[in-house]
Protein backbone atom coordinates (compact mmCIF):
# COMPACT_ATOMS: atom_id res chain seq x y z
CA UNK A 1 0.00 0.00 0.00
CA UNK A 2 2.07 2.92 -1.17
CA UNK A 3 -0.87 5.18 -1.92
CA UNK A 4 -1.44 7.93 0.60
CA UNK A 5 -4.99 7.88 1.90
CA UNK A 6 -5.63 11.60 2.40
CA UNK A 7 -8.72 10.92 4.48
CA UNK A 8 -6.45 9.32 7.07
CA UNK A 9 -4.03 12.24 7.22
CA UNK A 10 -4.85 14.31 10.26
CA UNK A 11 -3.26 17.15 12.18
CA UNK A 12 -3.53 18.33 15.72
CA UNK A 13 -4.67 21.93 16.07
CA UNK A 14 -4.09 23.73 19.35
CA UNK A 15 -5.36 27.15 20.33
CA UNK A 16 -3.70 28.57 23.41
CA UNK A 17 -5.57 31.34 25.17
CA UNK A 18 -4.81 33.08 28.44
CA UNK A 19 -7.37 31.02 30.37
CA UNK A 20 -8.17 27.97 28.26
CA UNK A 21 -6.41 25.88 25.68
CA UNK A 22 -8.51 24.08 23.10
CA UNK A 23 -7.28 21.32 20.83
CA UNK A 24 -8.70 19.07 18.19
CA UNK A 25 -7.85 16.41 15.66
CA UNK A 26 -8.64 17.79 12.21
CA UNK A 27 -8.70 16.11 8.82
CA UNK A 28 -7.98 17.51 5.36
CA UNK A 29 -11.59 18.47 4.85
CA UNK A 30 -11.52 20.70 7.91
CA UNK A 31 -13.62 18.36 10.03
CA UNK A 32 -12.85 18.41 13.72
CA UNK A 33 -12.84 14.70 14.57
CA UNK A 34 -12.05 15.00 18.27
CA UNK A 35 -11.95 17.91 20.64
CA UNK A 36 -10.63 18.60 24.10
CA UNK A 37 -9.44 21.38 26.32
CA UNK A 38 -7.43 22.16 29.40
CA UNK A 39 -6.79 25.20 31.56
CA UNK A 40 -3.80 27.26 30.49
CA UNK A 41 -3.57 29.29 33.68
CA UNK A 42 -3.20 26.25 35.95
CA UNK A 43 0.33 25.56 34.75
CA UNK A 44 2.96 27.94 35.93
CA UNK A 45 5.65 26.03 34.10
CA UNK A 46 5.29 25.49 30.37
CA UNK A 47 6.79 21.99 30.70
CA UNK A 48 3.98 20.97 33.07
CA UNK A 49 1.44 22.36 30.63
CA UNK A 50 2.92 20.35 27.76
CA UNK A 51 2.98 17.19 29.94
CA UNK A 52 -0.70 17.64 30.81
CA UNK A 53 -1.54 18.30 27.15
CA UNK A 54 0.34 15.17 26.11
CA UNK A 55 -1.58 13.03 28.59
CA UNK A 56 -4.85 14.20 27.09
CA UNK A 57 -3.77 13.96 23.48
CA UNK A 58 -2.03 10.57 23.69
CA UNK A 59 -5.28 8.55 23.62
CA UNK A 60 -6.33 10.45 20.48
CA UNK A 61 -3.04 9.73 18.80
CA UNK A 62 -3.49 6.05 19.66
CA UNK A 63 -7.10 6.03 18.51
CA UNK A 64 -6.16 7.44 15.12
CA UNK A 65 -3.63 4.68 14.59
CA UNK A 66 0.09 5.11 14.73
CA UNK A 67 1.55 8.53 15.18
CA UNK A 68 2.61 8.55 11.53
CA UNK A 69 -0.98 9.34 10.58
CA UNK A 70 -0.44 12.71 12.17
CA UNK A 71 1.08 15.20 9.75
CA UNK A 72 2.02 17.44 12.62
CA UNK A 73 0.92 19.89 15.23
CA UNK A 74 -0.15 23.46 14.59
CA UNK A 75 -0.39 25.96 17.41
CA UNK A 76 -2.01 29.38 17.55
CA UNK A 77 -0.88 31.39 20.55
CA UNK A 78 -0.54 35.05 21.50
CA UNK A 79 2.88 36.56 20.67
CA UNK A 80 3.97 33.39 18.90
CA UNK A 81 6.85 33.70 16.47
CA UNK A 82 6.55 31.56 13.35
CA UNK A 83 10.21 31.76 12.41
CA UNK A 84 11.65 30.97 15.81
CA UNK A 85 8.91 28.67 17.16
CA UNK A 86 8.83 30.76 20.30
CA UNK A 87 6.21 32.50 22.41
CA UNK A 88 7.69 35.85 23.40
CA UNK A 89 6.66 38.08 26.30
CA UNK A 90 2.97 37.13 26.06
CA UNK A 91 1.23 39.36 28.59
CA UNK A 92 -1.77 37.05 29.03
CA UNK A 93 0.08 33.75 29.45
CA UNK A 94 1.56 32.39 32.70
CA UNK A 95 4.93 31.62 31.02
CA UNK A 96 7.13 34.67 30.99
CA UNK A 97 10.04 35.67 28.81
CA UNK A 98 11.02 33.73 25.72
CA UNK A 99 9.46 30.24 25.59
CA UNK A 100 10.91 27.79 23.00
CA UNK A 101 7.49 26.25 22.56
CA UNK A 102 7.94 24.35 19.26
CA UNK A 103 11.14 22.75 20.51
CA UNK A 104 9.52 21.58 23.75
CA UNK A 105 6.49 20.22 21.89
CA UNK A 106 8.66 18.46 19.36
CA UNK A 107 10.68 16.76 22.09
CA UNK A 108 7.55 15.57 23.86
CA UNK A 109 5.35 14.55 20.93
CA UNK A 110 8.02 13.57 18.42
CA UNK A 111 6.00 15.39 15.76
CA UNK A 112 6.80 18.59 13.84
CA UNK A 113 5.22 21.56 15.59
CA UNK A 114 4.52 24.86 13.84
CA UNK A 115 3.43 27.91 15.76
CA UNK A 116 2.03 31.31 14.88
CA UNK A 117 -0.05 33.98 16.50
CA UNK A 118 -3.73 33.28 16.98
CA UNK A 119 -4.99 35.75 14.37
CA UNK A 120 -2.60 34.38 11.73
CA UNK A 121 -3.91 30.90 12.48
CA UNK A 122 -7.49 32.13 12.11
CA UNK A 123 -6.61 33.65 8.71
CA UNK A 124 -5.20 30.33 7.50
CA UNK A 125 -8.29 28.55 8.78
CA UNK A 126 -10.50 30.89 6.74
CA UNK A 127 -8.35 30.40 3.63
CA UNK A 128 -8.44 26.60 3.82
CA UNK A 129 -11.87 25.98 5.27
CA UNK A 130 -13.86 29.20 5.62
CA UNK A 131 -15.09 32.35 3.92
CA UNK A 132 -11.76 33.00 2.20
CA UNK A 133 -11.56 29.73 0.28
CA UNK A 134 -9.99 30.44 -3.10
CA UNK A 135 -8.78 33.90 -2.11
CA UNK A 136 -5.12 34.81 -2.40
CA UNK A 137 -5.27 38.29 -0.91
CA UNK A 138 -7.31 39.07 2.17
CA UNK A 139 -7.02 40.48 5.66
CA UNK A 140 -8.50 38.82 8.73
CA UNK A 141 -9.39 41.08 11.64
CA UNK A 142 -10.33 39.45 14.93
CA UNK A 143 -12.44 41.70 17.12
CA UNK A 144 -12.46 40.21 20.61
CA UNK A 145 -11.09 41.36 23.95
CA UNK A 146 -8.28 42.69 21.78
CA UNK A 147 -7.95 43.29 18.05
CA UNK A 148 -5.76 40.84 16.14
CA UNK A 149 -5.02 40.39 12.47
CA UNK A 150 -3.64 38.03 9.89
CA UNK A 151 -2.68 39.23 6.43
CA UNK A 152 -2.65 36.92 3.42
CA UNK A 153 -0.90 38.26 0.35
CA UNK A 154 -0.43 36.27 -2.83
CA UNK A 155 -1.65 33.14 -1.03
CA UNK A 156 0.74 33.34 1.92
CA UNK A 157 0.74 34.83 5.38
CA UNK A 158 2.81 37.96 5.73
CA UNK A 159 5.24 37.25 8.57
CA UNK A 160 7.64 40.10 7.97
CA UNK A 161 11.32 40.25 8.70
CA UNK A 162 11.05 38.99 12.29
CA UNK A 163 7.83 36.95 12.24
CA UNK A 164 5.74 39.60 13.99
CA UNK A 165 3.97 41.23 11.02
CA UNK A 166 0.25 41.90 11.18
CA UNK A 167 -0.27 43.77 14.44
CA UNK A 168 -3.01 45.88 12.91
CA UNK A 169 -4.85 46.25 16.22
CA UNK A 170 -1.99 48.44 17.37
CA UNK A 171 -1.90 50.76 14.37
CA UNK A 172 -2.87 54.30 15.30
CA UNK A 173 -6.25 55.45 14.00
CA UNK A 174 -6.43 58.68 16.00
CA UNK A 175 -3.05 60.26 16.81
CA UNK A 176 -3.06 61.49 20.39
CA UNK A 177 -6.33 59.63 21.01
CA UNK A 178 -7.45 57.20 23.71
CA UNK A 179 -4.60 55.78 25.76
CA UNK A 180 -4.34 52.01 25.56
CA UNK A 181 -4.76 50.30 28.96
CA UNK A 182 -1.82 47.97 28.37
CA UNK A 183 0.56 49.27 25.68
CA UNK A 184 0.23 52.95 26.60
CA UNK A 185 -0.05 53.93 22.93
CA UNK A 186 -2.47 56.70 22.04
CA UNK A 187 -5.34 56.16 19.63
CA UNK A 188 -4.78 52.56 18.48
CA UNK A 189 -7.49 50.61 16.68
CA UNK A 190 -7.66 48.19 19.61
CA UNK A 191 -8.40 51.06 22.01
CA UNK A 192 -11.64 51.67 20.10
CA UNK A 193 -12.74 48.55 18.22
CA UNK A 194 -12.06 45.77 20.74
CA UNK A 195 -14.72 44.64 23.22
CA UNK A 196 -12.65 46.43 25.85
CA UNK A 197 -12.67 49.61 23.80
CA UNK A 198 -16.40 49.41 23.15
CA UNK A 199 -17.04 49.10 26.90
CA UNK A 200 -14.96 52.25 27.49
CA UNK A 201 -16.87 54.16 24.80
CA UNK A 202 -20.20 52.93 26.21
CA UNK A 203 -19.36 53.95 29.78
CA UNK A 204 -18.32 57.42 28.59
CA UNK A 205 -21.49 57.86 26.53
CA UNK A 206 -23.65 56.57 29.39
CA UNK A 207 -22.18 59.14 31.77
CA UNK A 208 -22.71 61.88 29.20
CA UNK A 209 -26.25 60.87 28.23
CA UNK A 210 -28.02 59.51 31.35
CA UNK A 211 -31.28 59.24 29.37
CA UNK A 212 -29.77 56.20 27.57
CA UNK A 213 -31.05 52.72 28.42
CA UNK A 214 -27.43 51.95 29.25
CA UNK A 215 -28.00 53.84 32.51
CA UNK A 216 -30.32 51.04 33.63
CA UNK A 217 -27.37 48.66 33.83
CA UNK A 218 -24.80 48.68 36.61
CA UNK A 219 -21.47 50.16 35.48
CA UNK A 220 -19.60 46.86 35.65
CA UNK A 221 -22.07 45.07 33.39
CA UNK A 222 -21.55 47.51 30.49
CA UNK A 223 -19.95 45.58 27.64
CA UNK A 224 -20.54 45.01 23.94
CA UNK A 225 -23.30 42.50 24.77
CA UNK A 226 -25.34 44.93 26.90
CA UNK A 227 -24.75 47.72 24.38
CA UNK A 228 -26.11 45.36 21.71
CA UNK A 229 -29.22 44.65 23.79
CA UNK A 230 -29.91 48.38 24.11
CA UNK A 231 -29.19 49.00 20.43
CA UNK A 232 -31.69 46.30 19.45
CA UNK A 233 -34.31 48.09 21.56
CA UNK A 234 -33.61 51.26 19.60
CA UNK A 235 -31.53 53.13 22.17
CA UNK A 236 -29.86 55.89 20.15
CA UNK A 237 -26.87 56.17 22.47
CA UNK A 238 -26.13 52.45 22.23
CA UNK A 239 -26.47 52.71 18.46
CA UNK A 240 -24.06 55.65 18.52
CA UNK A 241 -21.53 53.59 20.50
CA UNK A 242 -21.42 51.06 17.68
CA UNK A 243 -21.52 53.73 14.96
CA UNK A 244 -18.46 55.42 16.47
CA UNK A 245 -16.72 52.05 16.82
CA UNK A 246 -17.56 51.24 13.21
CA UNK A 247 -16.24 54.60 12.05
CA UNK A 248 -12.87 54.06 13.71
CA UNK A 249 -12.74 50.51 12.34
CA UNK A 250 -13.66 51.69 8.83
CA UNK A 251 -11.02 54.42 8.85
CA UNK A 252 -8.42 51.83 9.82
CA UNK A 253 -9.63 49.37 7.18
CA UNK A 254 -9.23 52.01 4.45
CA UNK A 255 -5.56 52.33 5.36
CA UNK A 256 -5.13 48.54 5.33
CA UNK A 257 -6.73 48.31 1.89
CA UNK A 258 -4.37 50.93 0.47
CA UNK A 259 -1.48 48.88 1.85
CA UNK A 260 -2.17 45.41 0.46
CA UNK A 261 -5.25 45.81 -1.77
CA UNK A 262 -7.08 42.69 -0.56
CA UNK A 263 -10.03 41.03 -2.24
CA UNK A 264 -11.84 40.93 1.09
CA UNK A 265 -11.60 41.82 4.73
CA UNK A 266 -12.89 39.12 7.05
CA UNK A 267 -14.16 40.08 10.46
CA UNK A 268 -14.23 37.56 13.26
CA UNK A 269 -14.78 37.49 17.02
CA UNK A 270 -17.31 38.37 19.69
CA UNK A 271 -17.69 42.01 18.65
CA UNK A 272 -19.17 41.12 15.24
CA UNK A 273 -22.34 39.90 17.02
CA UNK A 274 -23.31 43.59 16.83
CA UNK A 275 -23.76 42.96 13.08
CA UNK A 276 -24.88 45.88 10.94
CA UNK A 277 -24.69 48.28 13.89
CA UNK A 278 -20.90 48.11 13.36
CA UNK A 279 -20.62 46.77 9.82
CA UNK A 280 -22.57 49.55 8.09
CA UNK A 281 -20.63 52.52 9.54
CA UNK A 282 -17.38 50.54 9.06
CA UNK A 283 -18.17 50.06 5.37
CA UNK A 284 -19.22 53.71 4.98
CA UNK A 285 -16.03 55.11 6.51
CA UNK A 286 -13.81 52.60 4.76
CA UNK A 287 -15.17 53.60 1.36
CA UNK A 288 -15.07 57.30 2.20
CA UNK A 289 -11.35 57.17 3.01
CA UNK A 290 -10.30 55.07 0.03
CA UNK A 291 -8.75 56.35 -3.17
CA UNK A 292 -11.31 56.01 -5.99
CA UNK A 293 -9.43 53.07 -7.60
CA UNK A 294 -10.11 50.96 -4.47
CA UNK A 295 -13.76 51.91 -3.94
CA UNK A 296 -16.59 49.36 -4.04
CA UNK A 297 -14.15 46.55 -4.68
CA UNK A 298 -13.30 45.14 -1.27
CA UNK A 299 -15.79 42.73 0.31
CA UNK A 300 -16.31 43.24 4.02
CA UNK A 301 -17.54 39.91 5.35
CA UNK A 302 -18.01 38.00 8.56
CA UNK A 303 -16.15 34.78 9.20
CA UNK A 304 -17.95 31.58 8.22
CA UNK A 305 -16.21 29.34 10.69
CA UNK A 306 -17.92 28.16 13.84
CA UNK A 307 -16.25 30.21 16.53
CA UNK A 308 -15.66 27.23 18.80
CA UNK A 309 -13.82 25.34 16.05
CA UNK A 310 -12.22 28.18 14.14
CA UNK A 311 -9.15 28.48 16.30
CA UNK A 312 -8.47 24.74 16.19
CA UNK A 313 -9.03 24.60 12.43
CA UNK A 314 -6.78 27.59 11.95
CA UNK A 315 -3.99 26.06 14.00
CA UNK A 316 -4.24 22.74 12.15
CA UNK A 317 -4.18 24.62 8.83
CA UNK A 318 -0.70 25.75 9.79
CA UNK A 319 0.51 22.16 9.39
CA UNK A 320 -0.70 21.89 5.82
CA UNK A 321 0.14 25.41 4.74
CA UNK A 322 3.88 24.80 5.11
CA UNK B 1 28.22 28.21 -28.00
CA UNK B 2 25.39 27.10 -25.75
CA UNK B 3 26.63 28.93 -22.67
CA UNK B 4 24.66 32.04 -21.78
CA UNK B 5 26.93 35.04 -21.41
CA UNK B 6 25.19 36.95 -18.61
CA UNK B 7 27.24 40.06 -19.28
CA UNK B 8 25.53 40.28 -22.66
CA UNK B 9 22.00 39.97 -21.28
CA UNK B 10 20.50 43.41 -21.08
CA UNK B 11 17.10 44.90 -20.46
CA UNK B 12 15.48 48.16 -21.41
CA UNK B 13 14.24 50.17 -18.45
CA UNK B 14 11.75 52.96 -19.04
CA UNK B 15 10.52 55.49 -16.53
CA UNK B 16 7.46 57.40 -17.66
CA UNK B 17 6.78 60.66 -15.88
CA UNK B 18 4.20 63.32 -16.57
CA UNK B 19 6.67 65.58 -18.37
CA UNK B 20 9.65 63.43 -19.31
CA UNK B 21 10.31 59.80 -20.09
CA UNK B 22 13.74 58.40 -19.38
CA UNK B 23 15.05 55.12 -20.68
CA UNK B 24 18.24 53.14 -20.50
CA UNK B 25 19.89 49.88 -21.45
CA UNK B 26 20.84 48.10 -18.24
CA UNK B 27 22.94 44.98 -17.67
CA UNK B 28 22.72 42.35 -14.91
CA UNK B 29 25.12 44.27 -12.71
CA UNK B 30 22.84 47.29 -12.69
CA UNK B 31 25.05 49.34 -14.98
CA UNK B 32 23.24 51.78 -17.21
CA UNK B 33 25.02 51.26 -20.55
CA UNK B 34 23.03 53.75 -22.58
CA UNK B 35 20.57 56.46 -21.70
CA UNK B 36 18.07 58.60 -23.46
CA UNK B 37 14.91 60.55 -22.95
CA UNK B 38 11.93 62.07 -24.67
CA UNK B 39 9.06 64.33 -23.71
CA UNK B 40 5.96 62.51 -22.53
CA UNK B 41 3.67 65.50 -22.78
CA UNK B 42 4.33 66.08 -26.48
CA UNK B 43 2.39 62.97 -27.51
CA UNK B 44 -1.35 63.20 -27.16
CA UNK B 45 -1.77 59.68 -28.53
CA UNK B 46 0.03 56.86 -26.77
CA UNK B 47 0.70 55.18 -30.14
CA UNK B 48 2.66 58.23 -31.29
CA UNK B 49 4.63 58.19 -28.07
CA UNK B 50 5.53 54.52 -28.56
CA UNK B 51 6.53 55.17 -32.18
CA UNK B 52 8.83 58.01 -31.11
CA UNK B 53 10.29 55.86 -28.33
CA UNK B 54 10.92 53.04 -30.79
CA UNK B 55 12.78 55.35 -33.17
CA UNK B 56 15.13 56.36 -30.37
CA UNK B 57 15.61 52.88 -28.95
CA UNK B 58 16.06 51.03 -32.24
CA UNK B 59 19.71 52.14 -32.71
CA UNK B 60 20.48 50.90 -29.18
CA UNK B 61 18.91 47.55 -29.88
CA UNK B 62 20.98 47.31 -33.04
CA UNK B 63 24.14 48.41 -31.26
CA UNK B 64 23.76 45.72 -28.62
CA UNK B 65 23.50 43.05 -31.29
CA UNK B 66 20.41 41.19 -32.28
CA UNK B 67 17.24 41.78 -30.34
CA UNK B 68 17.63 38.40 -28.63
CA UNK B 69 20.23 39.95 -26.33
CA UNK B 70 17.41 41.93 -24.79
CA UNK B 71 15.64 40.02 -22.04
CA UNK B 72 12.74 42.41 -22.19
CA UNK B 73 11.37 45.81 -21.38
CA UNK B 74 10.41 47.03 -17.93
CA UNK B 75 8.30 50.12 -17.46
CA UNK B 76 7.59 52.18 -14.38
CA UNK B 77 4.66 54.54 -14.83
CA UNK B 78 2.07 56.23 -12.65
CA UNK B 79 -1.14 54.17 -12.15
CA UNK B 80 0.37 51.20 -13.97
CA UNK B 81 -1.22 47.83 -13.33
CA UNK B 82 1.21 44.92 -13.20
CA UNK B 83 -1.42 42.23 -13.72
CA UNK B 84 -3.17 43.82 -16.66
CA UNK B 85 -0.25 45.65 -18.27
CA UNK B 86 -2.36 48.77 -18.35
CA UNK B 87 -2.00 52.40 -17.33
CA UNK B 88 -5.30 53.40 -15.77
CA UNK B 89 -6.67 56.92 -15.30
CA UNK B 90 -3.24 58.46 -14.69
CA UNK B 91 -3.97 62.08 -13.80
CA UNK B 92 -0.51 63.35 -14.85
CA UNK B 93 -0.25 61.62 -18.21
CA UNK B 94 -1.67 62.89 -21.51
CA UNK B 95 -3.29 59.48 -22.30
CA UNK B 96 -6.66 59.23 -20.64
CA UNK B 97 -8.75 56.23 -19.61
CA UNK B 98 -7.43 52.69 -19.75
CA UNK B 99 -4.27 52.35 -21.87
CA UNK B 100 -3.19 48.77 -22.82
CA UNK B 101 0.44 49.83 -22.64
CA UNK B 102 2.21 46.44 -22.46
CA UNK B 103 0.25 45.14 -25.40
CA UNK B 104 1.09 48.17 -27.54
CA UNK B 105 4.77 47.98 -26.57
CA UNK B 106 4.90 44.29 -27.28
CA UNK B 107 3.40 44.75 -30.72
CA UNK B 108 5.91 47.48 -31.61
CA UNK B 109 9.10 46.09 -30.06
CA UNK B 110 8.41 42.36 -30.30
CA UNK B 111 9.81 42.00 -26.78
CA UNK B 112 8.03 41.07 -23.53
CA UNK B 113 7.04 44.23 -21.69
CA UNK B 114 6.31 44.31 -17.95
CA UNK B 115 4.83 47.35 -16.31
CA UNK B 116 4.32 48.52 -12.75
CA UNK B 117 3.89 51.77 -10.92
CA UNK B 118 6.96 53.95 -10.52
CA UNK B 119 7.39 53.40 -6.77
CA UNK B 120 7.19 49.62 -7.15
CA UNK B 121 9.86 49.82 -9.83
CA UNK B 122 12.04 51.89 -7.51
CA UNK B 123 11.64 49.27 -4.76
CA UNK B 124 12.78 46.51 -7.12
CA UNK B 125 15.72 48.64 -8.19
CA UNK B 126 16.78 49.03 -4.55
CA UNK B 127 16.44 45.30 -3.94
CA UNK B 128 18.53 44.29 -6.95
CA UNK B 129 21.05 47.12 -7.11
CA UNK B 130 20.67 49.49 -4.16
CA UNK B 131 20.43 49.85 -0.39
CA UNK B 132 18.07 46.88 -0.04
CA UNK B 133 20.35 44.27 -1.60
CA UNK B 134 19.83 41.01 0.29
CA UNK B 135 16.68 42.18 2.03
CA UNK B 136 13.45 40.22 1.71
CA UNK B 137 11.16 42.56 3.62
CA UNK B 138 11.30 46.30 3.21
CA UNK B 139 9.19 49.27 2.29
CA UNK B 140 10.22 51.94 -0.16
CA UNK B 141 8.71 55.39 0.28
CA UNK B 142 9.25 57.95 -2.47
CA UNK B 143 8.92 61.51 -1.24
CA UNK B 144 8.63 63.74 -4.28
CA UNK B 145 5.86 65.94 -5.66
CA UNK B 146 3.67 63.13 -4.36
CA UNK B 147 4.30 60.24 -1.97
CA UNK B 148 4.58 56.79 -3.54
CA UNK B 149 5.45 53.40 -2.13
CA UNK B 150 6.55 49.91 -3.00
CA UNK B 151 6.29 47.08 -0.50
CA UNK B 152 8.51 44.02 -0.65
CA UNK B 153 7.42 41.10 1.51
CA UNK B 154 9.21 37.77 1.53
CA UNK B 155 11.28 38.85 -1.45
CA UNK B 156 8.38 39.86 -3.68
CA UNK B 157 6.43 42.99 -4.42
CA UNK B 158 2.98 43.11 -2.87
CA UNK B 159 0.61 43.73 -5.76
CA UNK B 160 -2.62 42.82 -4.02
CA UNK B 161 -5.77 41.41 -5.51
CA UNK B 162 -6.04 43.94 -8.34
CA UNK B 163 -2.43 45.02 -8.83
CA UNK B 164 -2.85 48.37 -7.06
CA UNK B 165 -1.42 47.57 -3.61
CA UNK B 166 1.00 49.97 -1.97
CA UNK B 167 -0.70 53.34 -2.13
CA UNK B 168 0.74 54.35 1.22
CA UNK B 169 0.88 58.03 0.30
CA UNK B 170 -2.89 58.03 0.43
CA UNK B 171 -3.27 56.39 3.84
CA UNK B 172 -4.79 58.75 6.38
CA UNK B 173 -2.41 59.97 9.08
CA UNK B 174 -4.70 62.63 10.54
CA UNK B 175 -8.42 61.86 10.21
CA UNK B 176 -10.26 65.03 9.22
CA UNK B 177 -6.93 66.73 8.50
CA UNK B 178 -5.62 68.68 5.53
CA UNK B 179 -7.68 68.26 2.38
CA UNK B 180 -5.71 66.77 -0.50
CA UNK B 181 -5.57 69.10 -3.52
CA UNK B 182 -6.33 66.29 -5.97
CA UNK B 183 -8.02 63.30 -4.27
CA UNK B 184 -10.09 65.36 -1.82
CA UNK B 185 -9.23 62.97 1.03
CA UNK B 186 -8.60 64.49 4.44
CA UNK B 187 -5.32 64.03 6.27
CA UNK B 188 -3.40 61.73 3.93
CA UNK B 189 0.35 61.22 4.28
CA UNK B 190 0.86 62.81 0.86
CA UNK B 191 -0.93 65.97 2.02
CA UNK B 192 1.84 66.48 4.60
CA UNK B 193 5.01 64.64 3.54
CA UNK B 194 5.21 65.35 -0.18
CA UNK B 195 7.07 68.39 -1.54
CA UNK B 196 3.64 69.84 -2.28
CA UNK B 197 2.55 69.24 1.33
CA UNK B 198 5.73 70.76 2.72
CA UNK B 199 5.18 73.91 0.66
CA UNK B 200 1.66 74.20 2.09
CA UNK B 201 2.93 73.78 5.66
CA UNK B 202 5.71 76.32 5.04
CA UNK B 203 3.35 78.92 3.60
CA UNK B 204 1.03 78.53 6.59
CA UNK B 205 3.87 78.83 9.08
CA UNK B 206 5.31 81.82 7.24
CA UNK B 207 1.99 83.64 7.43
CA UNK B 208 1.72 82.81 11.14
CA UNK B 209 5.32 83.70 12.03
CA UNK B 210 6.40 86.67 9.89
CA UNK B 211 9.70 86.85 11.80
CA UNK B 212 10.79 83.69 9.95
CA UNK B 213 13.43 83.97 7.21
CA UNK B 214 10.80 82.38 4.98
CA UNK B 215 9.15 85.80 4.83
CA UNK B 216 12.10 87.08 2.81
CA UNK B 217 11.08 84.85 -0.09
CA UNK B 218 8.18 85.60 -2.40
CA UNK B 219 5.18 83.33 -1.73
CA UNK B 220 5.51 81.42 -4.99
CA UNK B 221 9.14 80.48 -4.34
CA UNK B 222 8.36 78.70 -1.06
CA UNK B 223 9.12 75.00 -1.54
CA UNK B 224 11.09 72.29 0.24
CA UNK B 225 14.31 73.69 -1.25
CA UNK B 226 13.84 77.20 0.12
CA UNK B 227 12.69 75.80 3.46
CA UNK B 228 15.89 73.76 3.53
CA UNK B 229 17.99 76.86 2.85
CA UNK B 230 16.35 78.65 5.79
CA UNK B 231 16.67 75.61 8.06
CA UNK B 232 20.39 75.39 7.29
CA UNK B 233 20.72 79.02 8.37
CA UNK B 234 19.08 78.11 11.68
CA UNK B 235 15.62 79.52 11.06
CA UNK B 236 13.45 77.90 13.74
CA UNK B 237 10.26 78.13 11.73
CA UNK B 238 11.82 76.37 8.75
CA UNK B 239 13.17 73.72 11.10
CA UNK B 240 9.67 73.35 12.57
CA UNK B 241 8.22 72.85 9.07
CA UNK B 242 10.47 69.82 8.61
CA UNK B 243 9.94 68.60 12.18
CA UNK B 244 6.18 68.61 11.68
CA UNK B 245 6.58 66.86 8.32
CA UNK B 246 8.86 64.28 9.94
CA UNK B 247 6.36 63.70 12.73
CA UNK B 248 3.53 62.96 10.33
CA UNK B 249 5.84 60.73 8.28
CA UNK B 250 7.03 58.89 11.40
CA UNK B 251 3.49 58.29 12.63
CA UNK B 252 2.61 56.81 9.27
CA UNK B 253 5.76 54.67 9.19
CA UNK B 254 4.88 53.16 12.58
CA UNK B 255 1.59 51.92 11.14
CA UNK B 256 3.36 50.50 8.10
CA UNK B 257 5.85 48.65 10.31
CA UNK B 258 3.05 47.05 12.33
CA UNK B 259 1.52 45.90 9.06
CA UNK B 260 4.41 44.13 7.37
CA UNK B 261 7.28 44.24 9.89
CA UNK B 262 10.01 45.20 7.42
CA UNK B 263 13.75 45.01 8.01
CA UNK B 264 14.10 48.55 6.71
CA UNK B 265 12.24 51.51 5.33
CA UNK B 266 13.97 53.17 2.40
CA UNK B 267 13.31 56.81 1.70
CA UNK B 268 13.84 58.22 -1.75
CA UNK B 269 13.08 61.42 -3.66
CA UNK B 270 13.66 65.14 -3.62
CA UNK B 271 12.29 65.69 -0.11
CA UNK B 272 15.04 63.61 1.54
CA UNK B 273 17.52 66.33 0.65
CA UNK B 274 16.31 67.87 3.92
CA UNK B 275 18.22 65.03 5.62
CA UNK B 276 18.18 64.92 9.41
CA UNK B 277 15.74 67.83 9.58
CA UNK B 278 13.10 65.28 8.53
CA UNK B 279 14.78 61.96 9.33
CA UNK B 280 15.29 62.57 13.05
CA UNK B 281 11.70 63.53 13.92
CA UNK B 282 10.45 60.76 11.60
CA UNK B 283 12.52 58.20 13.49
CA UNK B 284 11.43 59.60 16.87
CA UNK B 285 7.72 59.46 16.08
CA UNK B 286 7.97 56.11 14.36
CA UNK B 287 9.57 54.54 17.44
CA UNK B 288 7.17 56.29 19.80
CA UNK B 289 4.13 54.82 18.05
CA UNK B 290 5.44 51.28 17.70
CA UNK B 291 4.59 48.36 19.94
CA UNK B 292 7.66 47.48 22.03
CA UNK B 293 8.36 44.29 20.02
CA UNK B 294 9.03 46.42 16.93
CA UNK B 295 11.12 49.15 18.55
CA UNK B 296 14.74 49.85 17.56
CA UNK B 297 14.64 47.12 14.94
CA UNK B 298 13.66 48.86 11.72
CA UNK B 299 16.37 50.70 9.81
CA UNK B 300 15.30 54.01 8.35
CA UNK B 301 17.65 54.67 5.45
CA UNK B 302 18.04 56.81 2.39
CA UNK B 303 18.18 55.29 -1.06
CA UNK B 304 21.64 54.51 -2.41
CA UNK B 305 20.75 54.76 -6.04
CA UNK B 306 21.70 57.75 -8.10
CA UNK B 307 18.42 59.57 -8.56
CA UNK B 308 18.89 60.05 -12.29
CA UNK B 309 19.41 56.32 -12.84
CA UNK B 310 17.19 54.85 -10.13
CA UNK B 311 13.98 54.91 -12.09
CA UNK B 312 15.58 53.27 -15.11
CA UNK B 313 17.30 50.64 -12.98
CA UNK B 314 14.08 49.94 -11.16
CA UNK B 315 12.12 49.53 -14.37
CA UNK B 316 14.75 47.19 -15.82
CA UNK B 317 14.74 45.18 -12.58
CA UNK B 318 11.13 44.34 -13.36
CA UNK B 319 12.31 42.25 -16.30
CA UNK B 320 14.55 40.05 -14.16
CA UNK B 321 12.29 39.85 -11.13
CA UNK B 322 9.62 37.92 -13.01
From TrEMBL, chains A, B:
It comes from the Bacteria. PANTHER family: BIFUNCTIONAL UDP-N-ACETYLGLUCOSAMINE 2-EPIMERASE_N-ACETYLMANNOSAMINE KINASE, ROK (REPRESSOR, ORF, KINASE) FAMILY. Keywords: Kinase, Transferase. GO terms for molecular function: kinase activity. This is Glucokinase. SUPFAM superfamilies: Actin-like ATPase domain. Belongs to the ROK (NagC/XylR) family. It comes from Chryseobacterium shigense.
